[in-house]
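Schema walk-through. Below, the input block comes first and the output block second. Nothing else is stored per chain. Lengths vary across the set, and this one has 139 residues.
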Amino acid sequence: MVEAITATYVQDDADWAITVSGRGKELTARAPGIIAARDRADQLVEELAGDGKTTVVHLLNGSALDFTSAYMTARLTLPKLPPLEVPPPGSVPKQQTPASAGKKPQLPPSKQLPKAVEDRKSPAEPAPAAESKAPAKQA
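--- output ---
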């Protein structure tokens, strides 16, 4: 039979204290958030269990449901981003300043042609004037 390992989480301000117990041992650690605490608990479980099959019960306030709710809320909450700045109409975006408007963007090395190929490229030549196919008028 597989013995369950218990991971208990206690919030201490912004940090979390983790206690992992099972198989007659108890390990503790701290982490800066519940997601990091869960990752750290997994590391502690590996130390306790080794390569064997394990069942881990994660508890917050003595409840697996409380832990799951807090953990999933943290995982699914978008990070706080600064507000989007909308430039006034008619302004030049930061990416296209007048000095850089005529320059081609630098390609990453994987997209650049080898120097030998670049040297063989001929400068852009104007297209030859189209000749008229109409027959010349006879006098």
